[in-house]
Amino acid sequence: MEELENKMMDELSFEDMFGDNVFESNNDEPLWDKLIQQIIDGNVIPVIGADLLIDNPSNLHKLIIDFLAKGFHLSSNPNSFSELVYDTDYTKANKKDNVYYQVNKVFANKRFAPSQRLMRLLSIRQFPFVMTTSFTPVVEQAMQAIWKDELKVMRFNNNPSENDDIKNGNDLRKPSIYYMFGKVGEGAHKYVLTDTDMLEFVSSWLSNDNKARPKNLCNELKEKYLLMLGNNYSNWLFRFIWYSMRKPDLGHGMLAYDTMDESLLNFLERAETFTKQNTSDVIDQIVARLERKLAENEETKFNKPEDNMDVFISYSRSDSDTAEKLYNELTTQGKRVWYDRNNLTDGGNFMDEIRKAIRTAKYFVPILSSNITKEKDDPHVYRNEWDQAIEVAISMGRTYIIPLAEEGFDFYRAAIPDKMQQHNAIFFSQDDGIKAVAEKIIHKMNQD
């Protein structure tokens, strides 16, 4: 009997024994999971190119080239600004640098509506800091529609005395648009149109001269996950751009493409870059997967302590309703918020978790109401939170405590620590909409 069983086993194939799908797997799922978690953690920097700017099927840069070629009655069909300025018909009538003047005129007279897919991506408000490789203001317009007057505009125009740089990593959490290759409206060669411009700009980005490139931004980008969308550059040019932003970690990012040079695609895959075809589908996937992940986190957040949050909310139990509304609104506006009802773990040492959360939070927002005055002689955890926050504020050397005080609140009769009284409060009334209150807090955060 045993001999028969052994013979039968010998005759069985691996497929018979284990099934023909044993080696099948969706290799993309871990990569998607990593991307979505990086977004939630605030580590993703989108880099938006010309192919994603408008809904018109054509690349916006190409539309401008076609417009100028028609206006100058060129017989050729240039595909780049370099081909346009070297066209013999163009050079007969114009100096090469005249093209910058002409492009400036185009954008002085016309605004191009951002594409629906670009707005869909940015409207989830998980990307406060966005870079663009296009000289056009379309991404800025999209960001402006979402972040209003909070938006900071920065650019690199290949002039060391004028290039913008961030102060530190905290600046990447503030609504900002960064023009990697200059912005339209400036003089000749201050933004990238021609191949020569691009080589000069990329050379500066690759330079070890800290005066020639934005040193702080470059250092921070090395640690971030780059989400490259709509950047349909030629093989070697893309490699230079990617390397200038990623060195030495080439693979920490994702590239979504509609068309791609095969050898470039092989290079990126060897560098373990997550590559996916069809940019529109990628954006849909990001939005849908992020929504699902956030919903899952909502269900399990009571068992997951978190640190490195944007805001720590400190409050009296008597102000629970205000605290919860503030938490919901700040979260809706893209901030990661530590709120004890959601972030304390079951059975954990809650004071240790609170102290760690305060030490690692970017900002501390104590809610100060008439209830604080009523409870001035009672022991409460929030007073311990204040003491911890004051210690952190001293070490920070910048605004850290942002008191949210009810109108009529008396700092002195409520027995608030002296060092808490030194911070300018944001006042609110019960009639104020919580959205306006949250926006005031975010505005204060973005001022530092």
Description of the molecule:
The chain has 21 helices and twelve strands. With 448 residues, the protein is of the alpha/beta class. The strands form two sheets. Strands 3-4-2-1-5-6-7 form a seven-stranded parallel β-sheet, with helices on both faces. Strands 9-8-10-11-12 form a five-stranded parallel β-sheet, with helices on both faces. Helix 8 (116-122) runs parallel beside helix 14 and helix 15 packs across helix 21 (434-446).
The count of DSSP E runs of length 2 or more, i.e. the number of strands, is 12
* Share in β-strands: 5-15%
How would a textbook summarize the main sheet? 7 strands, parallel
Compute the average pLDDT.
Answer: 84
> Using only CA atoms, what is the Rg?
27 Å
In DSSP terms, counting alpha (H) and pi (I) runs of 4 or more, how many helices?
21
Q: Which term fits the overall shape?
A: elongated
* Coarse structural class: alpha/beta
How helical, in percent, are the residues?
Answer: 40-55%
Contiguous uncertain segments of 5+ residues: 20-25, 300-305
Strand order across the biggest sheet?
Answer: 3-4-2-1-5-6-7
N→C terminal distance: 81 Å
